[in-house]
Every structure is written in structure tokens, then in C-alpha cells.
């Protein structure tokens, strides 16, 4: 099976010049108020279908989030439609390019939240942390009165993080509020609270997590504008405080400085990144299990994954796409 590294990253300005890569991938999100998100679903699905777009988009009362792929013209036309939605004129979009279509169908789903935190009343449009440009991030997180918190999931942090950042060791973004409330006194102490700097992959979780801290009464909260990806794209490696690689929710799996393709693959049973060392572990079986998930699955589940992987290999030898080979979805990050 080909590794997901068949894609390469490109920035917004060069997206139209990627003529050697026929598929353009757009990861997007926007926090805005949709009074009736259900009414937006069918026209959005029709626009994607008319332009040959595949992927997943989430709609909720708080906005839109997702990743789509297609031709450059199809993506442009679809983004033009999305930007006509209420409050979406300034839609946040990150582009990459792929040699092959990374998705097998188009889905537009209605959700309660576009990134699930499970906390009522959180509104990044009303109250959110202060944005910090990537070139100013090092100075902020190096200050003595700043505590830096990684808002991502445990398997993401294990791949890489900023030097000195606090790892909440959460399995899901839904766990972040309870973690912070339990650890607040230890983290922030008594008396004058430190400033809090927070970061995530592309920005969407930072928007919610900083809004949550503001609602919890933390006054000075900052977040990395454009997320880790923008930092890795713009900050020279010899000046960087980033250590390791960055897990991404697309066919690249991980990226490094300059958004160069990383060294990790993906476990198709649990959607966690897999290192070269993991592949030498007795618990690793391609398409079936990895050291992280082997003991989480039953023999029956592994047998099912094994058959799915066999079907994928047969399809690959025939030169066909197999639905089971698609990149797994995760609504935590655009």
C-alpha cells in the first residue's frame, strides 16, 4: 500500500502553481453564527458535487470546519460558495497538494460543535485569547511569567511539541476542560496568575480553548496564530523551539520544519501515528494493530481489520481504490 506521504505541502500563495499535483486539498474552519445550519447543508453538498469535490465538512450553529479536495478550479468554486455563508467572508483556509485524491466521497454533516469541547456557552466570536504571530512566539513562551499549554491529544503531543510545554495527556479535546479545572491551582498557583500561552495544529482548538480559559476567569491568555503549521512554515529551523514532528489530520500524517513530510505512518486501526521503531514491535501488524492499540482491540476486531487490509491489498494490485483505505476522519482539527 502506498504511504500517505504522496502529498506535499504548499502555501496559499503557491497553491495555484502546483501544476504537477492534480489534487488540491483545503483545510478550513470559521467560527460564526449560523441560525439554521441544516438549511445550509444541501446547497453546500450540491456545490461540492457540482465541482467534483470530496472530503468532509461539519456544520454547526457555531460555524464550519473540515477538509476537502479536488481540482484547483473546483476548490476555488467551492470556497467561493462557502464564503457567501453568514460570517464566512474571512474563512481560514490552509492548502496542500496531493498526487492522488485522499477521499472517497463527500459528506456534509450537521454537528452540535465544529470541534467538540462539550462546554456550553463557549463562543470564540465573543471572547478569545490574544493572537501571537509565529515570529513573536519564541519570545512569549520563553518569558519567565508564561506557562505554555499544548491543547492537543496525547498521541499528537508524543510526536512533537514546543520545548517546555505542558502536556495535558488528554485522549480527546473533550477532556481538556476537566483537566484544566483539576490542574488549575497547580498550574497557575496563588496570587498573580502567570500568562498562559496555548497552541494547537492549525488554530481551531486554540480558539475554543482560549475562549474557555477566558470564561474560567483567566485574564491573560494567548494563542499561536495559524497554529503549529504556520510556525513550522515561517520560523527558520535554527531559530525554532519546536521539538519533533507535527501530526496532521490528512494524508501527510506528520510534517516537520518547512512543512517537509515527516517520518511517521498511520495505524489504520486506531488512527495514531506509527514510527519506524513501532513497526519493529511484535504488536505491530500493518493495517491491523500497533503498540498503542494492540491491547485495546479484541481478537475479533483484529481479524476484521486483517480482512479489510487484505481487501485493500487486492484492490491496490488491481489498480483500484478501496474505501477502507481512505484517510480516517477526526473532527478535532481542520
Strand content: 15-25%
- Main sheet characteristics: 6 strands, mixed
What integer value in Å does the Rg equal? 20 Å
Mean pLDDT metric? 88
Measured as a percent range, the helix fraction is 25-40%
- State the low-pLDDT regions, or none: 1-19, 324-329
- Oligomeric status: single chain
- What sort of overall outline do the alpha carbons produce when their principal axes are compared? globular
Q: Can you write the helix and strand succession as a string?
A: EEHEEHEEEHEHEHEHEHEEEEEHH
Number of strands: 16
CA-CA gap between termini: 25 Å
Q: So how many helices? A: 9
* Major sheet strand order: 1-5-2-4-3-6
| Helix/strand class | alpha/beta
EC number: 1.14.-.-
GO molecular function: oxidoreductase activity, acting on paired donors, with incorporation or reduction of molecular oxygen
Keywords: Oxidoreductase, tRNA processing
Catalytic activity: uridine(34) in tRNA + AH2 + O2 = 5-hydroxyuridine(34) in tRNA + A + H2O
Amino acid at each position: 500500500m502506498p504511504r500517505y506521504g504522496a502529498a506535499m505541502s504548499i502555501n496559499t500563495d503557491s497553491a495555484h502553481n502546483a501544476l504537477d499535483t492534480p489534487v488540491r486539498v483545503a483545510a478550513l474552519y470559521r467560527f460564526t453564527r449560523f441560525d439554521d445550519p441544516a438549511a445550509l447543508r444541501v446547497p453546500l453538498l450540491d456545490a461540492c458535487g457540482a465541482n467534483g469535490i470530496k472530503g468532509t465538512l461539519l456544520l454547526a450553529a457555531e460555524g464550519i470546519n473540515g477538509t476537502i479536495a479536488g481540482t484547483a478550479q473546483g476548490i476555488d468554486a467551492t470556497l467561493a460558495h462557502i464564503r457567501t455563508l453568514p460570517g464566512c467572508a474571512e474563512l481560514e483556509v490552509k492548502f496542500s497538494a496531493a498526487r492522488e485524491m485522499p477521499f472517497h466521497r463527500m459528506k456534509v454533516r450537521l454537528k452540535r460543535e465544529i470541534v467538540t469541547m462539550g462546554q456550553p456557552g463557549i463562543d470564540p466570536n465573543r471572547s478569545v485569547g490574544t493572537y501571537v504571530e509565529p515570529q513573536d512566539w519564541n519570545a512569549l513562551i520563553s518569558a519567565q511569567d508564561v506557562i505554555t499549554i499544548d491543547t492537543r491529544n496525547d498521541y499528537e503531543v508524543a510526536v512533537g511539541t514546543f520545548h517546555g510545554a505542558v502536556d495535558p495527556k488528554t485522549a480527546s479535546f473533550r477532556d481538556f476542560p476537566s483537566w484544566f479545572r483539576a490542574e488549575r491551582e497547580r498550574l497557575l498557583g496563588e496570587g498573580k496568575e502567570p500568562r498562559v500561552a496555548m497552541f494547537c495544529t492549525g488554530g481551531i482548538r486554540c480558539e475554543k480553548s482560549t475562549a474557555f480559559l477566558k470564561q474560567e476567569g483567566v485574564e491573560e491568555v494567548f494563542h499561536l496564530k495559524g497554529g503549529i503549521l504556520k510556525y513550522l512554515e515561517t520560523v527558520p529551523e535554527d531559530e525554532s523551539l519546536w521539538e519533533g514532528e507535527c501530526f496532521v489530520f490528512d494524508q501527510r500524517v506528520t510534517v516537520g520544519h518547512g512543512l517537509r513530510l515527516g517520518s511517521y505512518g498511520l495505524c489504520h486501526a486506531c488512527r495514531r501515528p506509527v514510527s519506524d521503531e513501532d513497526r519493529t514491535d511484535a504488536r505491530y501488524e500493518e493495517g491491523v494493530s500497533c503498540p498503542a492499540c494492540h491491547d485495546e482491540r479484541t481478537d475479533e476486531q483484529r481479524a476484521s481489520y486483517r480482512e479489510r487490509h487484505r481487501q485493500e491489498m487486492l484492490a491496490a494490485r488491481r489498480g483500484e481504490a478501496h474505501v477502507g483505505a481512505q484517510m480516517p476522519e477526526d473532527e478535532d482539527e481542520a
